[in-house]
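Hey all, quick one. A colleague (J.T.) asked me to put the iron/sulfur cluster job into the tracker so the inputs and the structure tokens live in one place instead of scattered across chat threads. No bug as far as I know, just bookkeeping. Sequence used:
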Amino acid sequence: MADFKKLEPDLAFVKGVMDAGGDTVNRCYQCATCSIVCPLSTPESPFPRKEMLWAQWGMASKVSGDADVWLCHQCGDCSAYCPRDAKPGDVLGAIRANAIRYYAEPKALADMMSTSRGMIGVGIASIVAVLIMGFIWSLITGHSFPFPVTEDGKVEYHLFLSVIPIDILFLPLAGFVAFVSYKGVVNFWQDISKGAGLGESYTGTMPAPSLSALLKKYLVPAVKEILAHERFKKCGQTAERAKGHKWVLWGFVFLFITTSLGVIFADVLGNIFHAGFLHSPYAFWHPVKIFGTIGAVLLMGGIWMVRTMREEKTKEGILQSSEQDWNFIWLIFAVGASGILSWAIRLTNIPYIAYPIYWIHLGTVATLFLALPFTKFGHMLYRTTAYVFQAWAADVRAGQAGFGLEKPVVSPSETAEAGQEEEAGETGTKTE
Ligand code: SF4
Ligand code: SF4
């Protein structure tokens, strides 16, 4: 007699998907048109039909263990062709928002950052933390608080917070974000490994790639593909979003380089040498300034393109934008705008305007840091992991990876040489 398994639908999960913009999920009648028209779905990783069914039935563990959810770029092509107007692209977007909350710890912070009010609350708390640190720093340095100026009346932000108090504020925050992100990604990897049915050893352990194979063979190509937006470009209905998205991503890359250069100049070299160009404020020609300006322009230009496209496509009914989508867009906008304004207004030397904008800038940057594992920013973590997993799982299924089976990467010429040698060997045996 066949075995039957009773399904226990997770109604909280269904509600979470519906609240996050997937309220059309129950319209789906499984015709599979969406999986056929999706430009990113492949025979090995077909989606989004099966995810629609799992979401309808409240199969939270199935969905959380599904890497395919993260291969979707919400282009809306499937939604345009769905005969039931079930908007599968938006449902997958809502599933991703829930997955981020599922893997984030503490949950209370994830819930808070998923609402506009919560996000504003975190932003205000961050600005207060900046002010408290500025006050403590003024007690140590003797600079006036909260509008310190130089003897000749110039606004210089390092008088309010120099490198040391900024490090004291941001390094623990970065450590916390890195820890939560790492835990989320590891748990996600375990779930998608189980979900993909890659098999377990007799001791119950799941196959896992070695660190060197993970980095060289899978992570580096995945990052290159993401930076070039190879898959995003295949989207039809919202193709122009790829451009804005790419600008934002490269904006972050440039700002990451800016921060790293800032740390090298101010934290490392600045503590050894006392040359003026190692310390802020930096001149226009300074690498920190050049990278920072390019990053800010890319970030602001890209986020403006994304915002405009979202608004248009939402009006056309091709794309549904959730509160979380807008929260993240406005957060990036606030970081970019406050950064550019705090730089420009500093030049006017009006402390009562420059400093409040600077506090807002530091507060929004701290909020953006914190947003990584808790908001749509988490796409960076989980989509990259899904790309890596897709390539690795294909190798495991082909018997080329898993449980130490990773084969060294060989070039086509080496493969041809090996084939010739084998052939020569076989001929020799026959002759004998
Ligand atoms: S989401 Fe629409 S297109 Fe996809 S299977 Fe359901 S009804 Fe068909
Ligand atoms: S939104 Fe685009 S990428 Fe996502 S499932 Fe639909 S067609 Fe595929």
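Adding what we noticed when we looked at it: The pocket of iron/sulfur cluster (ligand 2) is lined by residues 34, 38, 40-41, 47-48, 72-78, 88-89, 92 (CB under 6 Å). The two ends are 59 Å apart (CA to CA).
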